Amino acid sequence: MDTSILKKIIRIYEESGTYYIPLHEFLRAIIYGDAEHFDPDQAPVANLYDLSTIDGREHFLLPLMLGLLASASDAEAEQGFVETAKLYQQLQGFGFTPEQIDNALIKADRGDLIDTAARRIPQPGKVMPQTIRITTVGSYHITRLARQFSYNDAVVVDTPVLDVEVRTRITDVRSIAEFGKAAWPTSAVTFGPPEVFGSLNWPT
Hints:
- By secondary structure, the chain is mostly helical.
- Among the domains are: 56-145, Arc Repressor Mutant, subunit A; 171-204, no CATH class.
- It is built from ten helices and three strands, in the order αααβααββααααα.
- It has helices at 3-16, 23-32, 61-70, 84-93, 98-110, 136-143, 149-155, 164-169, 176-183, 194-197, and strands at residues 82-83, 114-116, 131-134.
- The chain has a three-stranded antiparallel beta sheet with strand order 1-3-2.
- The chain starts with a helix and ends in a 7-residue tail after the last helix.
């Protein structure tokens, strides 16, 4: 954990005798571990918005895939398993190619977001498992993590931004004041005083 967070915890505990870990601090500790930035090879969570092709729509392919699996009715699924061919048909109906869906399926399996029939591992260029289902990990990603600012703030460094204008506006900020200025550069709103917003700052 970042030393500045530890110092803050010790200070608050010494002053009040208790310290309750906020959800965003807990998530940051889990997602980052000992690293300063999100590392997809080390983090225990997956980046839902990563790309395998130069197609911005693909940011939403994996969340959409997991959502379809989670919403499958009892008539469509047996013990939660959905026919892979039907899933491909649905996703291709949204304009995604079989290759994009292959890559999303492989990524989901590597992140333990899905289970496959007979524990068969999806591999590039190979026939995919006949049935798949969402795991509790996958469900947590789309129902909870994707709605948390701490998660989105972490994975953005691992998410390709194809729009050049947007990409040039992305900066690394640490304080809530810097964040507000970057998000709303023309706003007259101020983000002080420090004694109010200091606890919201990212650790440095």
